[in-house]
Amino acid sequence: MPNDTRKNIIDIHCHTAGIGAGESGCFVSPALMGSWKYWVYLRAFGVTEQELKREGDGLVMRRTSERLAQSERVASAVILAMDGVVDANGNLDRSRTEMFIPNEFVAKETAKYPNLLFGASINPFRPDAIERLERAAESGAVLLKWLPAIQHIDPADERLIPFYLKLKQLGLPLLTHTGKESSFTSAKEELGDPERLRLPLFLGVTVIAAHAASSGKSQGEDNHDRFLRLCREFPNLYADISALTQINRLGHLQRLLKQTELHGRLLYGTDMPLLRTPLVTPFAYSHVLPLRRMVEIARIANVWDRDVALKEALGVPELVFNNVQWMKDTPPLP
């Protein structure tokens, strides 16, 4: 454990969800709702469908805030909205959208809790995308989140140049999924290729590659290798370390940490609620951690504190936990 154990860490990658209860505007597609993943996610969020119907979708964020308040290490979390797929006219296409969590709902709910921050999501192919981006910034958004393979967004599309320039002007970083996507029922995997981020990087946008492109291949090459090549070219490319302790990504965190020159550009994230599933367990690391240490970590009650302890044990330096230079204005700690 580091000597400085102040509660000062920001989780930049934390999801929420909703079924439309309490007039939230959220929805989940029939395909995802009919999948076993839907029930896993509800359990991981610590809610039941009946509770959401009774109390409203804001319950997910309330319980997230309550659990986070009990952490001794993590001060706040960015809660991510989730825009959907749009049709040829730029309107929301519900038939191709697996999950929709509107900005207005997330902005309203996060404003209730001092330890939750607003992460916006806007499909840039909406006709009013720039206006939506300005409204999100006015509502306190600290970043913009994309999941290209699910939202059908090609970051390399030159039609997005005005949107990117507005992002840069507003000082909002783009947190975008890189690598293979397996949390939904279907995905356009080619859109997770890190090389597709060259356009916003060239234009000077601060880009955060979620999961450091730690899974999948593009054009026969590991996505992670393509990410590392971009890092050498663009100092405005960052990455978060969310999901990198999951059992389906074993070894990726240690591989990333070998790139010591990137430690100043690695950011702490959890990919909550996946952190609260069997995908993450210290006992998956018996090849690198002694049994006593794994047991100590497993006994930590708070899920954020347990995650920090596991990542520290695996070699994540204190610098990574304290990196906040991605933010235009660092918020005061709660």
From TrEMBL:
One of its GO terms (biological process) is secondary metabolic process. Signal peptide: none annotated. One of its GO terms (molecular function) is hydrolase activity. It holds the Pfam family Amidohydro_2. Residues 71-275 form the Amidohydrolase-related domain. InterPro entries: ACMSD (IPR032465), Amidohydro-rel (IPR006680), Metal_Hydrolase (IPR032466). It comes from the Bacteria. GO terms for cellular component: cytoplasm. Keywords: Hydrolase, Lyase. This is Metal-dependent hydrolase superfamily protein. It comes from Citrifermentans bemidjiense (strain ATCC BAA-1014 / DSM 16622 / JCM 12645 / Bem).
